[in-house]
């Protein structure tokens, strides 16, 4: 084997090695980019879930006089009234100590956080009602639901 042939083979092997390193680097960058995009997408979906859940609760209860905002023991609460054959019940959604709670109790009873279900963590919870429009604001953003039922 000649010295020229030997150098040619070494040169080829170096080129192949460089090409493989470049391809591996491109794959690594693509994987990291994909992971970053999916992480951001999942975080965005988690934020939207909270507001969508609250807005859907309001829309599902959109009947005359069924959705109210009351001030109580834990500040402002979104109150959804459910009139059944056995009496009136309330779903109360309120925030206390950075946790958003949902509580289902007979209408007129005391709020009891121990009986409530934790929805999510949020440091900000503002709910208001004006002219058949419910406005809900949390750490995730703000949503507005227009009630279709006449008050």
List keywords for this structure.
single chain; 151 residues; 3-stranded antiparallel beta sheet; 38% helix; rod-shaped
Q: Would you report the number of β strands?
A: 8
Radius of gyration: 29 Å
Separation of the first and last Cα atoms:
97 Å
* Estimated helix fraction: 25-40%
Structural class, from secondary structure content? alpha+beta
**Domain unit count:** 1
Kindly state the mean pLDDT as a whole number?
Answer: 89
Low-pLDDT windows of residues: none
Structure annotation, total helices: 1
Q: Could you write a compact summary of the structure shown?
A:
This protein is an alpha+beta fold and 151 residues long. Helix content is 38%, strand content 38%.
Please tell me about this protein's structure.
Helices cover 38% and strands 38% of the residues. The longest helix has 58 residues, at 3-60. The protein has one domain. Strand 6 (125-130) and strand 7 (133-138) form a beta hairpin. The termini are far apart. The strands form two sheets. A five-stranded antiparallel β-sheet has the order 1-2-3-4-5, with helices on one face. The chain has a three-stranded antiparallel β-sheet with strand order 6-7-8, with helices on one face. It has 151 residues and is α+β, with helices and mostly antiparallel strands. It contains one helix and eight strands, in the order H-E-E-E-E-E-E-E-E.
């Amino acid at each position: 084997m000649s010295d020229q042939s030997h150098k040619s083979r070494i040169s080829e092997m170096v080129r192949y090695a460089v090409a493989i390193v470049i391809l591996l680097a491109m794959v690594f960058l693509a994987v990291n980019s994909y992971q970053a995009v999916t992480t951001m997408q999942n975080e965005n979906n988690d934020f939207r879930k909270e507001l969508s859940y609250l807005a859907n609760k309001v829309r599902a209860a959109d009947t005359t006089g069924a959705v109210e905002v009351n001030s109580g023991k834990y500040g402002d609460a979104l109150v959804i009234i459910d009139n059944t054959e056995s009496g009136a019940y309330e779903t109360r959604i309120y925030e206390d100590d950075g946790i958003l709670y949902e509580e289902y109790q007979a209408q007129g009873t005391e709020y009891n956080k121990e009986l409530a279900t934790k929805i999510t963590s949020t440091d900000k919870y503002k709910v208001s009602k004006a002219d058949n429009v419910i406005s809900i604001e949390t750490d995730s953003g703000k949503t507005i639901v227009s009630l279709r039922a006449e008050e």
